[in-house]
């Protein structure tokens, strides 16, 4: 009974968490989650929080919480980043947490072109709380009754797994384009809840790209000065999961609005979403909200996703000079 319940919960949670592997809606504003080298981007010291909820069956949710901070040491040509990511599926008693520490070095290639290689190490934890489940000895089928108490020893035991995680990445950019590569979970840590299962964490390989241009450089349109279009895309492969993400974001002074498209291929079925991103920048504070609409088909429904995030930039020039809201910057190196 014990092994059966553990196997059942693991399968259900793995299916649900497959959505969480690419949970971001507004990925272009949180690139450090996909490529940790972004912590050293333009040597900007930042901190932020994010809340994301995925409704995957119309009733139950996968909740994700994320917090990060980064600090750059300009004289030593490197930056450090610290982040904490948490997923939870309360109905299944499943919880997943990861704490990462990232080191990023800056290399100047000349002609205003920079490359940011990085390495991160982390601690990963998965836990199943069996108190939410109904066990065999609680079922009185002849009477249609579910008893409140059980004698099954699994009910009082929390299944958990702790492991180390590691990854590498690099980011190449100037003030017009950005190209990134990242490899996560390269140590292939064991994440099974018991020794009978040899489950390993899948390596995640991701490619990212971005391009930015000014929409009206000659002031011929009735647009705010320094209006930009930021185009971003990424492709990620992690085990049987493949994800494609793209976004197009319009920056009009302190206001931004964009669209995103998301395609996830899991084993023999696919999930598709489209959505909107919006945000306001005021001084050092950047507030964003996003919603992803499910595209429904006859086989499976995509999840709907809602996301809120806020970032604070500690650079003093943000509060003194915010007429230019360009995303790809290099002048602070």
Please, could you describe this protein's structure?
It contains two helices and 17 strands. The protein has one domain: monomeric porin ompg (Porin, Beta Barrel). A hairpin with a 2-residue loop joins strand 14 (255-266) and strand 15. Helix content is 7%, strand content 53%. The chain starts with a helix and ends in a 13-residue tail after the last helix. The protein has a 14-stranded antiparallel β-barrel with strand order 1-2-3-4-6-9-10-11-12-13-14-15-16-17. It has 333 residues and is mostly beta strands.
What's this model, at a glance?
With 333 residues, the chain is mainly beta. Helix content is 7%, strand content 53%.
- Estimated radius of gyration: 22 Å
CATH level-3 fold name:
Porin
What number of structural domains do the residues give? 1
Which percent band covers the strand fraction? Answer: over 45%
Main pleated-sheet profile: 14 strands, antiparallel, barrel
Q: Are there runs of 5+ residues with pLDDT below 50, and where? A: 1-20, 140-144
Query: Which CATH architecture would you pick?
Result: Beta Barrel
N-to-C series of helices and strands? HEEEEEEEEEEEEEEEEEH
Distance between the termini: 59 Å
Helical content stands at under 10%
Shape: globular
Oligomeric state as shown = single chain
Count of separate DSSP helical elements: 2
């Amino acid at each position: 009974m014990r092994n059966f319940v553990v196997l059942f919960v693991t399968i259900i949670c793995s299916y649900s968490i497959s959505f969480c592997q690419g949970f971001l809606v507004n990925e272009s504003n949180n690139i450090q989650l996909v490529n940790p080298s972004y912590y050293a981007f333009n040597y900007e010291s930042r901190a932020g929080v994010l809340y994301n909820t995925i409704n995957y069956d119309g009733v139950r949710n996968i909740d994700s919480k994320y917090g990060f901070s980064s600090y750059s040491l300009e004289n030593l040509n490197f930056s450090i980043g610290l982040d904490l990511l948490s997923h939870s599926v309360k109905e299944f008693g499943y919880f997943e947490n990861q704490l990462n520490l990232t080191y990023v070095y800056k290399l100047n290639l000349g002609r205003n072109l920079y490359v940011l290689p990085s390495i991160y190490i982390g601690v990963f934890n998965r836990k199943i709380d069996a108190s939410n489940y109904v066990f065999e000895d609680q079922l009185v089928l002849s009477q249609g009754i579910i008893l409140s108490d059980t004698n099954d020893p699994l009910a009082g035991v929390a299944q958990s797994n702790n492991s180390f995680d590691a990854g590498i990445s690099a980011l190449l950019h100037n003030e017009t384009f950005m190209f990134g590569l990242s490899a996560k979970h390269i140590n292939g840590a064991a994440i099974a809840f018991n020794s009978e299962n040899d489950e390993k964490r899948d390596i995640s390989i991701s490619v990212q790209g971005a391009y930015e241009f000014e929409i009206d450089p000659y002031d011929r349109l009735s647009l705010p000065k320094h209006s930009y279009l930021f185009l971003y895309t990424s492709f990620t492969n992690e085990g049987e999961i493949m994800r494609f993400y793209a976004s197009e974001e319009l920056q009009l002074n302190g206001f931004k609005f964009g669209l995103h498209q998301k395609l996830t291929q899991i084993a023999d079925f696919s999930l598709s979403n489209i959505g909107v991103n919006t945000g306001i920048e005021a001084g050092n504070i950047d507030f964003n909200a996003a919603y992803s609409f499910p595209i429904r088909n006859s086989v499976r429904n995509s999840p709907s996703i809602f996301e809120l995030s806020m970032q604070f930039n500690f650079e003093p020039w943000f509060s003194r000079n915010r007429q230019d809201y360009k995303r790809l910057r290099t002048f602070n190196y």
